[in-house]
Write a structure and sequence with these properties.
mainly alpha, two-stranded antiparallel ribbon, 2 strands, 61% helix, globular
Length: 142
């Protein structure tokens, strides 16, 4: 991926078909959002290059424009969510806890849309992914 793809830290996460304006997100919300997406990516145990590229673009949108900074943030998020991917119960608890960070309706819709995008990017939604999506949908009342 070219460095130009990471050069606009002001705007966003360029998920295909969806731009998420991170300027209204607090630092804690950005971290919770990224952790939710990492959880979504690991939920089915099937990691794709496409998912990784989306997350790298999100990190750039969060202001981590240099590769070492993006890798550090990515690794930190994986470390935070790793204990929760041992069981669907733990994953659900983490997802709902992270979702607490979003009280604004627009943010909830954007976060849910991004999680859905990551989970469905491989054209296969696992039982774990379906459960997490259902829980988030109920949490956000969508």
């Amino acid at each position: 991926m070219s460095q130009a793809a990471f050069s606009n830290p002001r705007k966003i996460c360029y998920l295909p078909g969806m731009d998420i304006d991170l300027t209204s997100f607090s630092t804690a919300q950005k971290e919770a959002f990224f952790d939710l997406l990492i959880l979504a990516m690991y939920a089915d145990g099937h990691l794709t290059t496409f998912e990784d590229e989306l997350l790298q673009q999100l990190l750039a949108g969060m202001g981590f424009t240099e590769e070492p900074a993006r890798q550090r943030e990515f690794d930190a998020a994986v470390t935070r969510i790793r204990p929760s991917i041992e069981s669907i119960y733990k994953a659900k608890e983490l997802a709902l806890g992270l979702a607490e960070a979003f009280t604004d309706r627009r943010q909830q819709q954007q976060v849910f849309g991004a999680v859905l995008k990551i989970m469905s990017s491989d054209f296969n939604v696992s039982t774990w992914e379906s459960t997490l999506l259902m829980e988030l949908r109920m949490k956000f009342r969508l």
